[in-house]
Amino acid sequence: PMIPVALYGIDVDMCERFYEEMSSMLSDAYEDRRYIEALYTIDSKSSVEHIRVSDEWAQRSPYAWPEDVVNEVEMVLRTVVYPDVSLLEHLLTLDDVDAQRVSEWMHFSTNTFPIYSQKACETLTKMGLETPYLPGDIASYGLYVSRIEGLKLHAPATGLPEIGLPRSRMLQLGLERFE
């Protein structure tokens, strides 16, 4: 299959080995109760509820924003359409909010946005895909999103195990564990 643009320059052998080892790397992933419970407690449409669940999962202090800020954040989260992250940039102006935290919100809110991860970025870079981890820069997260999407598109039929986790989560964990 043709390589997606987001994966141009990838070490093809390393990439094949990544998919081959995916099942064994993720053999215990469905045992992560905290993650799975957080994922399934999200049933409401309220983005603020998603943020609460996400921050709790990531063991972050809960936000304390005035109502107008809450409304603004909610509007942004509702307006963002995968895979475009540009609207999220505005959220980085909030105290203690960086691209990593926003990615967690978006992940629990949508299941499609991947959680931004330094280790995953390092592995992508080792695979020949320069992917800097810059939590202060939403464009870097955007690049990471496109790399993960490329890996989703390029995955062989047997590449991503059927373990009931979002593919974005499996790829993030796979990249973190891949040697």
Structure commentary:
By secondary structure, the chain is mainly alpha-helical. Helices cover 54% and strands 0% of the residues. The protein has helices at residues 12-25, 33-41, 47-57, 67-79, 99-110, 118-126, 138-154, 167-177. The two termini are 25 Å apart.
Give me some keywords for this one:
mainly alpha; 179 residues; single chain; 54% helix
Strand content: under 5%
The whole-number mean of residue pLDDT values reads 94
- Number of E-type strands: 0
- Structure class: mainly alpha
User: Unreliable segments (pLDDT under 50, ≥5 consecutive)?
Assistant: none
The secondary-structure element order is HHHHHHHH
Choose one word for the global shape. globular
Helix content estimate:
40-55%
Distance between the termini: 25 Å
- Main pleated-sheet profile: none
**Count of DSSP-assigned helices:** 8
Radius of gyration: 16 Å
Summarize this, please?
The chain is an all-alpha fold. It has helices at residues 12-25, 33-41, 47-57, 67-79, 99-110, 118-126, 138-154, 167-177.
